[in-house]
Amino acid sequence: METILGHAQALVYTLLSLMPSAYQRDSLQAMLGLFLEAQGQPSPQHSLIKSGSALSRFLNEYAWPTRQVVRVVRRQIVQQLLQSAPKGRRPWLQVVVDLTTLEKCGKFKAFASLIRVLQGKRGLHLVVLYLVVGECRVPWSFRVWRGKHQRTAVQLAIRLIGSLPPALTSAFRVVILADTAFGSVAFLKAMRKRRYSVIVGVRCDRKLADGRCVSKLVKKGQQVRLEGLNFPVTISWLYLKREPKRLSSRLVPSKAAPSLGGGVDDGALRDFSKPSNIALGCIALLSRRSRAYIAG
Q1: What's the CA angle centered on 152, arms 148 and 235, to 5 degrees?
Q2: I want to staple 260 with a disulfide (CB 3.0 to 4.6 A). Which of 10, 92, 134, 179 is the partner?
Q3: What whole-number distance in Å separates Cα of residue 23 and Cα of residue 37?
Q4: Secondary structure class of 225 (helix, strand, coil)
Q5: Which residues pair with 246 in a beta bridge?
Q6: Sign of CA pseudo-dihedral 66, 67, 68, 70
Q7: Pairwise CA distance, residues 238 & 234, whole Å
Q8: pTM of the shown model
Q9: What torsion, rounded to 10 degrees, do the Cα atoms 146, 148, 151, 155 define?
Q10: Quick one: DSSP state of residue 113?
């Protein structure tokens, strides 16, 4: 715990030193205090040190080295993940990809090109990438989905995964966790080209190479070929209780999952990100030879 505290203090002092003025250092310190208190009130108006308007000006108007801050934080994340990796066989690095929406109401002239409607939700749509190693779970990067005729969510996700630093991809075995939105042929082929293991969701009406639907499969854990793919994938499923007397199907293996670098905490995965819900127990599929593993 002392080691973690020491790293956190060093990171905070480094970030504060990047601020160009004492006023901005105080504002950043107030913002960090709101987050580190973990009271569920990180909004600027809850600060007892700076006013909400002062913190708003700090975030929206004042110039400070954003890129340098991002580089410093990412460098610290990589160091911590590498130090947390157990010795011996290369551990697993879980890369969680999610499409999330920050709903917005009203007019935002400055963000007119970013606010879009997707699946009935109006707001800012982000493709977010998280990294998980054991108990270490951190957000790594994101891209904004800008609507039709722009890069799709799948293309953005591929670019995010491709930006992972070589220090991590060489030190860990990478497994991609994503939901049904990223189960396209292009995504699976891109991950196979990178030789990453993949666990994603598929629609129940997804076609197989022989013309059948995925929903017609009756045996869990069998290898099949999806339409458009020239390599086999493994399909399995379970049922999650959503409402009383109602079951929702999700793909997972029928056997208990082996540990990934110290084990997978089902509760932690459920709380961390939505795509992990479809991947509970799916890690058992990683012992098979095919590089793409489908859940749906």
Answers
A1: 130
A2: 92
A3: 21
A4: coil
A5: 243
A6: positive
A7: 14
A8: 0.76
A9: 110
A10: T
Q: Report the C-alpha gap between 244 and 272 in whole angstroms.
A: 24
- Closest residue by Cα to residue 132 from 184, 95, 187: 95
Nearest to 80 by CA among 148, 162, 14, 135: 135
Contacts of 9 (CB under 8 A, 6+ apart): none
pLDDT along the chain (296 residues), means of 10: 68 87 87 73 73 82 86 88 78 89 76 78 87 84 86 92 91 88 88 88 83 82 84 76 53 32 39 41 38 38
Residue 134, Cβ neighbours under 10 Å: how many?
A: 20
Tokens of residue 274, six digits: 């939505």
* The amino acid at 65: P
- In the chain, which ranges are continuous DSSP H helix? 2-17, 22-37, 52-60, 66-84, 153-162, 166-171, 185-193, 266-272
Provide the b/e sequence for 68-105 (b: ≥16 CB within 10 Å). Answer: eeeebeeebbbebbeeebeeeeebbbbbbbbbebeeee
